[in-house]
Amino acid sequence: MFIAQQFKQRNIVEYVLYMWQIEDILRAYGCDLSRLRREYISRFQYDEEQIDELTDWYAMLIKQMNTEHCREKGHLQQNIKTVDTLEALHQRLAADADKPFYKAQYYKVLPFIVELRNKGRKDEGEVQTCLNALYGTMMLRLRQKEISPDTKHAIEAISTLMGMLAEEYTKQQGNVPE
Questions:
Q1: What are the start-end ranges of the H helices in 68-148?
Q2: How far apart are CA 41 and CA 44, in angstroms?
């Protein structure tokens, strides 16, 4: 929760990726709050009040996952809406003649997006495709799996584009980082 709040203020793309990771953590613990508190939350160096606050946050997320039927797979509606907002902003930026650097980076990334869509879901938005690639790569790194040079190159380009998108989002939200 504390980290999510920081990400939401500082970098919306990192926030989405973090929230996806939280969804996966909750699934890994079977959405069992007592087990989560005992085996996961207890490892954090927080005082009792912070632990209680964090536990309440996880409880709320578990309840939402159950209500929204994404306990096994999928994403919370709040995360889907954030991705949809980023997709709309991306489309505006990609079409904006006053954003030549964004447009140039987008055209560098577009072949990777097309390739990824051909391997997966063709109906998802470009931002969703990019986020899936970043999240998948993050999971590979966590598992200490080999990442090919071609994949690294694609992820670097995608990361740059998503960083530009996050920066523009932050500017438009008025959350300019210190």
A1: 77-95, 100-119, 126-142
A2: 6
| Sign (positive or negative) of CA dihedral 108, 120, 132, 152 | negative
* Span 15-32, pLDDT tens digits: 999 999 999 999 999 999
- pLDDT tens-digit readout, 66-92: 999 999 999 999 999 999 999 999 999
Q: Three-state DSSP class for 40?
A: coil
Sign of CA dihedral 45, 49, 50, 53: positive
Distance CA 58, CA 27 (A): 12
What is the distance between the alpha carbons of residues 73 and 75, in angstroms, rounded to a whole number?
A: 7
Compute φ and ψ for 79, nearest 5 degrees. Answer: -75, -40
Cα–Cα distance measured from residue 12 to residue 83, given in angstroms and rounded to the nearest whole number? 9
Q: What is the C-alpha to C-alpha distance for residues 2 and 53, in angstroms, rounded to an integer? A: 10
